[in-house]
Amino acid sequence: MANIRSAEKQRRQAAKAQVRNRTGKSRLKSALKKARTAIAGGDTDINILRSGYSEIDKAARRGLIKNNTADRYKSRLAAAAKRVAK
Where are the chain's structural domains? Predict the structure, then answer.
């Protein structure tokens, strides 16, 4: 347990950030799963990709994932959609 006041404050801040990050990561995972299942089902609607890209970009902007990770996710979504479109 923290004995110093600044350490106690940091612990409180970390707990708040943990909840915020968990919520954001959950939203990201849900959006990715929705996009992947739609693509796997043969639906290559542009709106599905846009919503997936949007959530990925939001997560990267908030610092939940790194920029390269976001780019990789978007690239893989696009490649999967392209495979299905053929």
Answer: 27-85
